[in-house]
Amino acid sequence: MFDYNFHWRPVMKSLPDLLDAAFLTLQVAVLAMVLGIIIGLCLALIRMHMKGPIRWLASCWVELARNTPALFQLFFFGFGLGAFGLHLSPYMIVLAGLTFNCAGYLAENFRGGFNAVPDTQLRASRSLGMTAWQAYTRIVIPQVFRIVYHPITNQMVWAVLMSSLGMLVGFRELSGETQFFASRTFRIFEYFAVTAVIYYVIVKLILIASRLLATRLFRY
Amino acid sequence: MYKKLAAIAAIATLSTGPALADTLDDVVDRGTLRCGVVLDFPPIGYRDANNEPAGFDVDYCNDLAEALEVEAEVLPVTWAERLPVIVTGRADVVFGATSDSLARARTVGFTIPYAIYYAQGVVNKDSGIESFEDIRGKRVAAAIGTVPEQEWLKIAAEWGEEKNYQGYQSENEVFLAVAQGKADIGITTNTAILPITQQYDSVVAGPRMPWTTDYTSVVGKREDVTWLNYLNLFVTHQVRSGRYDELWGKYVGGDAPELRIPGVMY
Amino acid sequence: MEPTISFFSGFTPNDLLFLGEAALRTLWISVLSITIGTALGVLFGWVLYEGKLAATLTVAPVLDIFRSVPLIIQLVLFYNFAPIVGLNLDPFASGVVILTIYTASLVANVARGGIEAVETPMRRAARSLGMTYWQDLRYVVFPIGGRAVFPAWVGVALGVMKDSALVSVLGYVELLKASQILITRTQEPFLILTIAGAFYFALSYPISRYAASLERKWAQ
């Protein structure tokens, strides 16, 4: 039927390597998400409460992250910064690029979350004698996290999918490793088909884990 | 019921049969020759000031199209893509400085050699690399899917320095990485040394690599022997007509290397 | 060593034209994919809403695949698969096909959300006024639901516009690929990446701001 002979054996032989690479993908995505959540939270708070150049910088970060392609951002952390003699390893390029991107998107989610918690709650908790720090960490932020829990899950999935761009900056995560093997055996289709399945499974596992976690965290 | 199924199966086998690949007829009939060419490998394949394809390989493609009396269509490919485009039938022929390794010959068909290269490094002038031994502990860059990559990874494995290797999408990214100082040495071929060191102030010619000369061939579909025969004839005619010398002189400079492998029939 | 201070050497006005043309190609492939993809996506969204069980078992999982596998893997897979089944698609056509399906898979969810946003009593009221099912869809569901999910759709469209940068891996010379070509020729990564980034930003930022302001206006 096809004028093409499928060779699956080489792919199966390198499956252990691909799975190792899949862990690297997961690792860089999780790390980028943790950093992204912390920075995103800071960016959102800065944009809501501060004035002057710091606020402007935070806005720049958010708008640049949201309005340029992720691949562009990776190139920028690669050869763009290289022009100034700042050399990141492929791992760092991907981590920095993903963190930059995730922080920008999450900042907007957090802002929406903060806006959804009424001011009166903050004032009420302050009048109960809580410090501002207590009011934020005990009253506001837990509610914000409940609101942004779903967007964070989505962003986690995006982070995994986006990390595939690593193959274009020389990072040997799942896609990069796939490309490396495919370039040796010239079986692009077979390798990438298997990799697509691995990504699908990773994404599904994340969604299931997130749902399980949600039932533990948010018992209504 | 089984009879019916068997009949259908029989018809299906008959009608699919062994597909007769005949690229030569296809090309002449189609009126276009689709050449896969690597365009980030100056001066063999590159983009000129107008961003149009140019170089030794591009001219070879045009010459072949002229011989066939068809239009040439240049399909820019990366190193990693140049053999898959043949396997999937996206291109009829690849002029891409492809070394004729036995591993690759399991997948695609090779002609007799049409150009000869040897591997050489380009180094950042601050890297302090002068001889091959100096590379120990340095960051090495090469393009994904090339012979230099594979050969280097063998040596790197011996030295235990695979971590220092950086794989890039294209030769030009390798050069840029060396120029910027992201890598200390980029492994490429001797032909690229001159244009690259002229283009980048921070890049100088580096040591020759210890592995053997690269005999590179034109690539076609493995099953299509008549097409490979035609391509062989084309390669011989390019040499006989003096076109090979002319193009080599134009793009690389100096005398064209003799395309003969000493001591063995080819 | 100051390799990148000589900003304009090697970069000619001609190259700006080259980038401009590439930008138009980015625009063209995006507009084409977003238009067809949206039309398909709305159709799928309607099928998902009306089809219930049957659609959940057929259309939904297929669309889900396109949301759970990195776009870059989809592009590489399809580009290498097409010739196997005898389709000789160039990078542009392959890019349009995948971007369209990708858009459709994202828009389908948005569209279903839009239909769900219109409350049942409202639709019943429309039907009891004598409207046919299609009139109800056209004059009640479309304007109200469409308004509810318009910002989400703009998000998807802008996302696809940015993601069209990935078609560069197939060799289609859109904006990001053109900048790569120029970077390798002129060795000015910072300048060229800045120009490319500015273009994406100039396209995406005003639209996202406009959508946000519309959202605020409609929310009042």
TrEMBL record, chain A:
GO molecular function terms attached to this record: L-cystine transmembrane transporter activity
Transmembrane segments: 22-46, 152-171, 191-214
Any one cellular-component term (Gene Ontology): ATP-binding cassette (ABC) transporter complex
Family named by the database record: Belongs to the binding-protein-dependent transport system permease family. HisMQ subfamily.
Topology versus the membrane: Multi-pass membrane protein
Short name of one Pfam family: BPD_transp_1
Protein name, entry field: Amino acid ABC transporter permease
Organism per entry: Halocynthiibacter halioticoli
InterPro entries associated with the record: AA_ABC_transptr_permease_3TM (IPR010065), ArtM/GltK/GlnP/TcyL/YhdX-like (IPR043429), MetI-like (IPR000515), MetI-like_sf (IPR035906)
PANTHER family linked: L-CYSTINE TRANSPORT SYSTEM PERMEASE PROTEIN TCYL, MEMBRANE COMPONENT OF AMINO ACID ABC TRANSPORTER
The keyword Cell membrane is annotated on this UniProt entry: yes
Key words of the record: Amino-acid transport, Cell membrane, Membrane, Transmembrane, Transmembrane helix, Transport
TrEMBL record, chain B:
Source species of the chain: Halocynthiibacter halioticoli
Signal peptide: 1-21
Keyword match Signal: yes
Origin superkingdom: Bacteria
Pfam families xrefs: SBP_bac_3
Identification of the protein by name: Transporter substrate-binding domain-containing protein
Keywords carried by this UniProt record: Signal
UniProt domain Solute-binding protein family 3/N-terminal: residue ranges: 32-255
SUPFAM superfamilies (alphabetical): Periplasmic binding protein-like II (SSF53850)
UniProt lineage: Bacteria, Pseudomonadati, Pseudomonadota, Alphaproteobacteria, Rhodobacterales
Keyword Lyase: no
Cited InterPro entries: Solute-binding_3/MltF_N (IPR001638)
TrEMBL record, chain C:
Compartments (UniProt record): Cell inner membrane; Cell membrane
Domain ABC transmembrane type-1 stretches: 23-211
Major location (coarse): membrane
PROSITE patterns: ABC_TM1 (PS50928)
Pfam families: BPD_transp_1
Signal peptide segment: none
Keyword terms of this UniProt record: Amino-acid transport, Cell membrane, Membrane, Transmembrane, Transmembrane helix, Transport
GO MF entries: L-cystine transmembrane transporter activity
Keyword RNA-binding: no
InterPro entries in the record: AA_ABC_transptr_permease_3TM, ArtM/GltK/GlnP/TcyL/YhdX-like, MetI-like, MetI-like_sf
Annotated membrane topology: Multi-pass membrane protein
Transmembrane segments: 27-49, 92-115, 136-158, 190-208
Cellular component, GO, one term: ATP-binding cassette (ABC) transporter complex
Family, per entry: Belongs to the binding-protein-dependent transport system permease family. HisMQ subfamily.
Protein's name according to its UniProt entry: Amino acid ABC transporter permease
Source taxonomy: Bacteria, Pseudomonadati, Pseudomonadota, Alphaproteobacteria, Rhodobacterales
